[in-house]
Model the fold of this input.
Amino acid sequence: MASLFTRRQLIAGGLGLAGASLLTGCTSTAPGAMPTASVKVPTAPNLGAPAVEATLRPRVATVDLGGVNATTWVYGDGLPGAEIRAKAGDVIRVLVENALPTETSVHWHGIRLHNAADGVPGITQDAIAPGASYAYEFAAPDPGTYFFHPHSGVQIDRGLYAPLIIDDPAEPGGYDHEWILVLDDWTDGVGTSPDDILAGYKAQHGTVSSGMNHDMGGMSGMGSSPLGDVGDIDYPHYLINGRVPTEPLTLSAKPGQRARIRVINAASDTVFRVALGGHQVTVTHTDGYAVQAQETRALYVAQGERVDLMVTLGDGVFPFVAAAEGKQGQGLILIRTGSGTKPAATVHPAELDGDPLLLSALTAADSARLADKEPDQVEQVTLNGQMKPYAWGMNGTTFGNDTPIRTSLGRRLRVQMSNLTMMVHPMHIHGHTWSLPGNGGLRKDTVLVLPMQTVTADLQADNPGIWAYHCHNIYHAEIGMMTTLQY
Done:
């Protein structure tokens, strides 16, 4: 295949998310600020007996992507890994037995768990060594669609991800089917390995620009997007539930039935434009929280975002397509309710055209709103970087050289994220959920910040610890687009 490095100059400079002692040894401290080393990670609370127990065994395996075999790293036997399911309030215990040739970790993306279980080596734990075991135990307070993946290097760009579904016992249901669709961009075992991609980016040196860089340009040879610049890598494949579009999976139902579709973007570098051919869908939740129901023909789903859709199904065979925004290629899964032929792998539903919905444009349901309160503290965060030399960071620097955001327990913190680049950045906060006051209090833990856009996000400081806050493009994060929230 052609080289994956078709869009970006390669760089260096960043510190890996998995590096030990990053906070205590390398972090700069603003005048008068509390030294990082004095912030203690809370110990695990006594949670009681677990209601759900599972074992993960990350290992090397060969998986069939639908006529394309790839040797990669997986949880268990399949791709994606088997879901873990619990009820809101349940205590979950997961034993990780590391059968990989290198250290790893597991982060429970979107869960408001206690800090010691967050799964970020160098911040909340030591990495799990090859051959070692580690038990994560936490309560899952909020219902919703979540997932889990490593927070070690670029391991998420292999096959190490799986759904985590927290059910609401009080939810009325009202649907006949529930389907979980995991979107991914794929190169491991068939193209350049994720580690080699990252090494290529680190092979040249770059300094993060602290302001807007006017020499950014577009995405060479890869199409364009109304969102701006959307990614760095032209992947050979895009998957839905571990299958390439030439051999998609098929979901079966009957005409007129209602389906709840939980969509998880586990990709490392790709924003997807999603649509179900022949249908409008209704968005009911994003990042686990209920929204005011919004009908749409298509929507964007960025890395780390999750969205729940409701749809009443027609009669026939319908393509559910996740088109790689600004790139060539797409993921595909079929929904069959009646007779009809299998569409081509390149099928392009008309619903994909037009103006897809941005999840950050939704409005929170009344039940999901954070109580109104004026912020006690306002922090300005800039998202910085450029193509030449390739570098990404926050507040004009890279992780390990950064000044963490510090607050106090009980405070309402407002973060104003200003994207000074021409690239979109899905910004993810650990252990908390943002409330977006400019969007009717929309609750999200992963917010797509567009080029030259400022997003205001409020957070209630009610879960003390040291929490990662970073871009969920894994290559941007590994190069240095990350800081921490500490209290």
Observations:
- The first strand starts at residue 52 and ends at 56.
- The two ends are 47 Å apart (CA to CA).
